[in-house]
Structures are given as structure tokens and as C-alpha cells.
Amino acid sequence: MPFQLSSALHTQPTPFYHYDLALLDRTLTALQQAAKPRNFQVHYALKANVNLPILERIKNQGLGADCVSGGEVQRALEAGFAPGHIVFAGVGKSDAEINLALAADIWCFNAESTAELAVLDALAGAQGRTARVALRVNPNVDAYTHPHITTGLAANKFGISLTDLPAVVAYLGSLPNLELVGLHAHIGSQITNLSVFAKLSERLNELQTALTDQGHHLPHLNVGGGLGVSYEHPDEQAIPDFEGYFSMFEKHLVRRPGQQVHVELGRAIVAQAGTLISRVLYVKQSQQTQFAILDAGMTELMRPALYGSYHHIQNLTSTGPEQLYDVVGPICESSDTFRKGVQLPQTQRGDLVAIRSVGAYGEVMSSGYNLREKAAAVYVGQ
Ligand code: LLP
């Protein structure tokens, strides 16, 4: 079904984020149907969307929380995620953030350097606690995605390089307040070539064998997130290919007896449930180009300006013969362009426009640039 806006929302002040909780539920059901029989535990990556009604839904389906800041840990707790289902990752955790997570007794810290381990050990000791740690490795596997969201290559700032890992494991073993519980890897986001997860699995298998040979027992493996969605076909492919994703790991990842495997998905869970609704302020014809100027801009959806990313755009009001428009926002930057050369029915001032697949990395990356007001969030399908 193409996106439709209920008539009650036609008078809602624009721009606003429109979240379809019924689609979120269907997505979560499909996700758990693929994950549970294969014995994978899913942690939701809060960075994709932190709105409480969404988090509560996700928590109620039994997912854990993957957080990358003290603020996200706090938000996860506020949404009711059990501390034992919260992971804290990130290449630059501050002392205050670590202390907050230690005090909450979260399940595990994904640590990325010896410098971080030293701080974590000292802070855990000061609180009289033992911190559980999974070491994030940089597996040097290409995810074949946008360079800005590739994280698992040797050139990226993330993770511990494969050659350094044995020394880091030994160092961790010398620290009294840390307990090694597993390995973590995340190679990138918006991954559509699923074969990269086979490569990741093989790399993790090699690492596990090496660590087991050295006498380390790893009860826990976290293979990261990154499953992509179809920005081109948000209606036809509203539910991502969870079966394909999990079967890659099922086939290629060697599990030790009793070992727990976590994935931490963000985008695949929430992207398609969110739509940015905006109104056309002006249609402007320049010498070369016809512009549809919206009341939403890069302040509400930064992805096109930042990554040149595609979002499907629909005129919800006008029908009839199509014309070409550069769909732009009101912000004082030429990069404030949703897309150039969009085919839309002849568009007029006041038309409602839907920009699709913004549930992930849309609202969370919004800004107040140009002193813009924060756009509202509206929930349907409850
Ligand atoms: N785990 C780690 C360690 C991550 O860094 C990320 C995303 C995830 C999990 C979740 O990845 P997902 O399943 O959502 O792909 N702002 C960018 C995306 C940045 C992703 C950063 N890390 C965008 O708008 O495309």
C-alpha cells in the first residue's frame, strides 16, 4: 500500500515526523520470527531513533538495547529496558558516561582500546564493581556501503586491529576489575550485499579459534548491526530481509556450546516506519530549474545533504501530469536539497509532501540550525 495520510492529520502543523507503529510491530514480529528459532538475541541500536513510544514497543517485543552514549543508556533505562539487556559501545566514552553505566550495572561494555580498558578498570574499581567487557575488533571486512558509514576497515577509527588483539586480551586479563565476556564487531550500516556477513563470520571464527587455543572462554559474541533497507521501494519492501540476514550467520558463524550471539540492528527495525510530512511553501521557476521549496529541510532530514542518500518523495495532495522538480528545503545552504529532478504531479503551494523511510537517522540527526523549531512526532497505528 502506498503511503497515505489520514485526513485528520491534514491540518497538523508541518513539518512533522509520522510514525506507523503498526508497521513497526509487523517489522518486529518478522524480526523475531527470523531471530528466535535460530537463537539470536537482538539488541536495538538506539542511535537510529530514541523516541519513547518506539522504544517501549521494541522493549515489549523482548529486544535489548545497544547504546552509544550516557544519554542513550539513560533513555534505555527510562524506556524500561532491563540493565541486564543494555550494552554500552562507542569509541570515546567519557568518565561520566562510564560511571553512569557502571552504577546502572548494565550487561556489558564494548571496549575498543587499551587506554579505554585502563579507565574502565579504574572507574569500576572505584565503584567496587567488576565490569563485563566485550572487545570490539576491527575485522577489516569491506561492507560495500557508503564510505561515511563503513566502520570495519583497517583505516577506520573503530575497533582493535586483528594483530593487536592478543596483546589487548592479555592486558585485559591483568586488570582486576574487568571480566572478558566476548567479542564485538560492526562493519557498517545500510548493508545490502549480505555476503559480507559471511566474511565477517569467517573472520570471527578465526579469532575465536585463536582465543580458545589460548584458553579464553567467550560466552558472548556480538556481530553488530547494519542490515540495510530499501529506500527505493518503501512500500513493496517495507519489511527488511531478516531471514536472509540471520541465515548468513546461521550458516557461517561457528558457535561454541552455550554461546550467546547478539546482533544490534537499528535502521532495519525503524527506518520504514517513519515518514517526514512537509508542505510546499513555494514553487519557483529559475532559468534552468523548477524548485519545490518545502517547509522541511536538512534540519529535519540530514541524510541527503550528508551522504547524498535517496529518499522516496510523494506528493500527497496533487495528482495529474508529472513535471520535474528539485525538491529543496528553506535552509541557507545549497546542500539543503532532498533530491534533484524528482518527477511529481504538478505541484502547488500548500501541497503535502511525504519523504519516506526517515524512521532511522532522521529525527535523531535533526538540528536547530537557522534557529528552527523542532518538528513534532505523531504516532499512528497504536
Ligand atoms: N552497532 C554499531 C557499533 C554501530 O556503529 C551502528 C551504527 C549500529 C550498531 C546500528 O547500525 P544499523 O543496524 O542501524 O545499520 N547516520 C547514518 C548511519 C550511521 C550508523 C552508525 N552506526 C545514516 O543515516 O545512514
From TrEMBL:
<keyword id="KW-0457">Lysine biosynthesis</keyword>
<dbReference type="InterPro" id="IPR009006">
    <property type="entry name" value="Ala_racemase/Decarboxylase_C"/>
</dbReference>
<protein>
    <recommendedName>
        <fullName>Diaminopimelate decarboxylase</fullName>
        <ecNumber>4.1.1.20</ecNumber>
    </recommendedName>
</protein>
<dbReference type="GO" id="GO:0008836">
    <property type="term" value="F:diaminopimelate decarboxylase activity"/>
</dbReference>
<feature type="binding site">
    <location>
        <position position="361"/>
    </location>
    <ligand>
        <name>pyridoxal 5'-phosphate</name>
    </ligand>
</feature>
<comment type="similarity">
    <text>Belongs to the Orn/Lys/Arg decarboxylase class-II family. LysA subfamily.</text>
</comment>
<keyword id="KW-0456">Lyase</keyword>
<comment type="pathway">
    <text>Amino-acid biosynthesis; L-lysine biosynthesis via DAP pathway; L-lysine from DL-2,6-diaminopimelate: step 1/1.</text>
</comment>
<dbReference type="Pfam" id="PF00278">
    <property type="entry name" value="Orn_DAP_Arg_deC"/>
</dbReference>
<dbReference type="GO" id="GO:0030170">
    <property type="term" value="F:pyridoxal phosphate binding"/>
</dbReference>
<feature type="binding site">
    <location>
        <position position="226"/>
    </location>
    <ligand>
        <name>pyridoxal 5'-phosphate</name>
    </ligand>
</feature>
<comment type="subunit">
    <text>Homodimer.</text>
</comment>
<dbReference type="Pfam" id="PF02784">
    <property type="entry name" value="Orn_Arg_deC_N"/>
</dbReference>
<feature type="modified residue" description="N6-(pyridoxal phosphate)lysine">
    <location>
        <position position="47"/>
    </location>
</feature>
<dbReference type="InterPro" id="IPR022657">
    <property type="entry name" value="De-COase2_CS"/>
</dbReference>
<feature type="binding site">
    <location>
        <position position="333"/>
    </location>
    <ligand>
        <name>substrate</name>
    </ligand>
</feature>
<keyword id="KW-0663">Pyridoxal phosphate</keyword>
<keyword id="KW-0210">Decarboxylase</keyword>
<feature type="binding site">
    <location>
        <position position="361"/>
    </location>
    <ligand>
        <name>substrate</name>
    </ligand>
</feature>
<dbReference type="InterPro" id="IPR002986">
    <property type="entry name" value="DAP_deCOOHase_LysA"/>
</dbReference>
<dbReference type="InterPro" id="IPR022643">
    <property type="entry name" value="De-COase2_C"/>
</dbReference>
<feature type="binding site">
    <location>
        <position position="267"/>
    </location>
    <ligand>
        <name>substrate</name>
    </ligand>
</feature>
<feature type="domain" description="Orn/DAP/Arg decarboxylase 2 N-terminal">
    <location>
        <begin position="26"/>
        <end position="271"/>
    </location>
</feature>
<comment type="function">
    <text>Specifically catalyzes the decarboxylation of meso-diaminopimelate (meso-DAP) to L-lysine.</text>
</comment>
<feature type="active site" description="Proton donor">
    <location>
        <position position="332"/>
    </location>
</feature>
<keyword id="KW-0028">Amino-acid biosynthesis</keyword>
<dbReference type="GO" id="GO:0009089">
    <property type="term" value="P:lysine biosynthetic process via diaminopimelate"/>
</dbReference>
<dbReference type="InterPro" id="IPR000183">
    <property type="entry name" value="Orn/DAP/Arg_de-COase"/>
</dbReference>
<dbReference type="InterPro" id="IPR022644">
    <property type="entry name" value="De-COase2_N"/>
</dbReference>
<feature type="domain" description="Orn/DAP/Arg decarboxylase 2 C-terminal">
    <location>
        <begin position="20"/>
        <end position="359"/>
    </location>
</feature>
<dbReference type="InterPro" id="IPR022653">
    <property type="entry name" value="De-COase2_pyr-phos_BS"/>
</dbReference>
<feature type="binding site">
    <location>
        <position position="307"/>
    </location>
    <ligand>
        <name>substrate</name>
    </ligand>
</feature>
<dbReference type="InterPro" id="IPR029066">
    <property type="entry name" value="PLP-binding_barrel"/>
</dbReference>
<feature type="binding site">
    <location>
        <position position="303"/>
    </location>
    <ligand>
        <name>substrate</name>
    </ligand>
</feature>
<feature type="binding site">
    <location>
        <begin position="264"/>
        <end position="267"/>
    </location>
    <ligand>
        <name>pyridoxal 5'-phosphate</name>
    </ligand>
</feature>
